[in-house]
Model the fold of this input.
Amino acid sequence: MAALPSSPIPASTVPPAKGELRTALGRFATGVTIVTCRDAAGSAVGLTCNSFNALSLEPPLVLWSLRRASPSLAAFTGAGHFAVNVLAEDQIELSRRFASPAADKFADGVWHDGAGGAPLLVGAAAVFECAREAHQDAGDHVLFIGRVLRLADAALPPLVFHGGRYHLLGEIL
Done:
């Protein structure tokens, strides 16, 4: 790993290797979400995602990204709605389940249908019900932009991901 430069980086710098980029991006702590929708057949689809971000307050927009190689891509590009379920720290096993190839990911947790049938997780720290505004190819991912139709939040400590591992959020004294 390279040390931080003491002067500005020259314009001719060679782009970072994929592993170096992944490691450096891992230094940015994120929340952990399960993004859900219904596919064309009406089946629930969901995956663990930490690329969720706020985009705009007016209008209320959020974004997240999904690898183009994901088997869930067709479901999300075809869905008119999706939900972003921000996980609480006690939902780490759900995060692992939705990051795995488990057959029935929705067998655990308590779920109910939101806008467009997108599954909403009971007990999440926050839930954003969204209408898909757009999706766009960006490198090896697809960016999804959603207009927030409804939301709910609870004063629960969130699950955090940093440096390739889950963490709990602690208070600064």
